[in-house]
Amino acid sequence: MKSIFDITNKVAVITGGTGVLGSSAALSLSGAGVKLVVLTTSKQKGAELEKTIRDNGGEVILLEGNVLSKASMEEVRDVVLEKFGRLDILLNVAGGNMPGATIGPDQTIFDLELNDFNKVTELNLNGTVIPSLVFGKVMADQGSGTIINYSSMAVPRVLTRVAGYSASKAAMENFTKWMAVEMATKFSDKIRVNAIAPGFFIGNQNRNLLLNEDGSYTERGADIIRNTPMGRFGEPDELNGALHFLCSDASKFMTGAVIPIDGGFNIFSGV
């Protein structure tokens, strides 16, 4: 009997697929039999990931793509449809932050650099909206599919310093819920749009913010650990169970949901 968690032979596009979280998702989905199209800003960055997937018997296409360009995403869509004829899963992992959109310990909100704020908003919001429109249209035409966006603990909790990132991820989360309603009411109840909200995972962008060179916690890292009931940072592969669930029929009556994967950070009062 086929398991309701089975995602074998589904076709997935992963934006930001060569980062720490994106590559972990790619390896996990490939291991479950998903055919992948991994998007990156540089094929050189993804060469090792591509080789690992293929060496383990997976099917993957590595493409350079710009999530802020509709034309670029349409080129990727054409490759996907020519190769596979359909698209079942879109993971919008691409995102990021910039120094000028962050408020340093000796700064206030009035030191916010609007140019950087706009760039962060464009990446985190438009970088999810544009792929969702392009690949969501494929799902609308075929009557099925699932989109999974990457939110953040910076949405439900007011985290100091990351003003631009928080605002843009909050807008993206609202768009997730809005598009979930749109797809279900106007196209098909078999098209679902959800999100996961990771807690704190060590990646290339936040490593120096959370860890010292010797591996000990920075002041901010220690503050986060104190407010995480599980008392540690997450491991990238600890997101993958929720991803498999959201990609499968096990979650077929879920849409517009945001699942926190945070070691309890969001529910802890600190007292």
Quantity of strands, as a count: 7
So, the CATH homologous superfamily of the largest domain?
NAD(P)-binding Rossmann-like Domain
C-alpha termini separation: 48 Å
Rg value: 18 Å
The main pleated sheet reads as: 7 strands, parallel
Strand content: 5-15%
Sheet with most strands: strand arrangement = 3-2-1-4-5-6-7
Structural class: alpha/beta
SSE order: EHEHEHEHEHEHHHE
State the main characteristics.
271 residues, alpha/beta, Rossmann fold, seven-stranded parallel β-sheet, 8 helices, 14% strand
Can you describe what's shown?
The chain has 271 residues and is of the alpha/beta class. The chain folds into two domains: 216 residues, Rossmann fold, CATH 3.40.50.720; 29 residues, no CATH class. It has eight helices and seven strands. Helix 3 packs parallel to helix 4 and helix 4 runs parallel beside helix 5. The N and C termini lie far apart (48 Å).
Outline:
The chain contains eight helices and seven strands. With 271 residues, the protein is of the alpha/beta class.
Write the layout of secondary structure elements.
Blueprint: E1 11-15, H1 20-31, E2 35-40, H2 43-55, E3 60-64, H3 70-84, E4 89-92, H4 114-142, E5 145-150, H5 163-186, E6 191-198, H6 207-210, H7 219-226, H8 240-247, E7 258-261
Parallel strand pairs: 1-2, 1-4, 2-3, 4-5, 5-6, 6-7
Helix pairs in contact: 3-4, 4-5
